[in-house]
Amino acid sequence: MREYKFLIPVLRDSDRQPHDRRPLDWLDSLLVAEFGGFTRGDPVQGGWQGSESLILDESIPYWIAAVSEKAVLETIWRCCDRFDQQCIYLRKPDGSVLLVNRLATANLQALEQ
């Protein structure tokens, strides 16, 4: 098994409003079912360049242990939809980073590596 870390933003992309508790409960259940558990940390702050200005965001870090990178990516793709995110930050076990977008062709290339 290898450790993966990803960040779930606290605010939805579409309206910049916070998620209610249901998507987080869904994610907790999914991570237990798919990977046997998870670790969740305190929220962290960061930012990214939007089309017009810097977007400040707060995210909840999650760590999981997984054998299959494909299973991790499929989980993150589902999170993009469920949490209304254009992309989600994923740090792979080798330290490299992916900005996972469910529809991006780069995701398909990552599965082939």
Task: Furnish the topology, listing elements before pairings.
Layout: E1 2-9, H1 21-35, E2 39-40, E3 44-49, E4 54-66, H2 69-82, E5 88-91, E6 97-100, H3 105-112
Antiparallel strand pairs: 1-4, 1-5, 2-4, 3-4, 5-6
Structure description:
By secondary structure, the chain is an alpha+beta fold. The protein has a single domain (2-104), classed as Alpha-Beta Plaits, CATH 3.30.70. It has helices spanning 21-35, 69-82, 105-112, and strands spanning 2-9, 39-40, 44-49, 54-66, 88-91, 97-100. Strands 1, 2, 3, 4, 5 and 6 form a 6-stranded antiparallel beta sheet that branches. α1 runs antiparallel to α2 (69-82).
Low-confidence stretches: none
Task: Give the strand content.
Answer: 25-35%
How many H/I helical runs?
A: 3
| Cα-to-Cα separation, first versus last residue | 17 Å
Summarize the structure.
This protein is an alpha+beta fold and 113 residues long.
Question: Which features characterize this protein?
Answer:
alpha+beta, 113 residues, Alpha-Beta Plaits
